[in-house]
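Sharing a chain and its predicted structure for anyone who wants a worked example. Both blocks are below, sequence first, C-alpha cells second.
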Amino acid sequence: MLSLLVMVMLGVSGGLAVAVLIPVLRLGRRALVVPRRLAQPSPAIINMAHIPVDGVGGLGLVAAVVVVALWDPRIRIAMTGAAVLGAGLALGLSAIRRRAGTPPFDGDDPGDRSMLHLHA
C-alpha cells in the first residue's frame, strides 16, 4: 500500500511540475490565432467501415457499436426508423410475392431456388 501511495505522490508532483513549466516555457510565444472560422470535420474521419470484424475481438467491436448505438438517442431513433421501414418493406415484398404466385424459377433443381446460385 505504501508503494502505491509513493507512486501516486510522484505522479501528482510530476504533473504539477509539468503544469508549472508549460506556461513558463511559453512566455515569449504568441498564441496561434486563426483569422477565419475552421470548417467542420468530415464524418469520413471517423469512418470505421473498413475495419475487419474477425474473431472474438470483432465480436467485442460489434458489441461496443451496438451499445453506443442504443445509448445515443439520435442513433437509436435512426435505427428504430430503419428497422420499422425495413420490416414494412419486407412485409410488402412478401405480400407482393404471395399475390403473384410461385416464382418463375421454381424447378426441380435446388439451385433454382438459390438467391446466390452458389450450387451451379
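Comments welcome. The mean pLDDT is 80.
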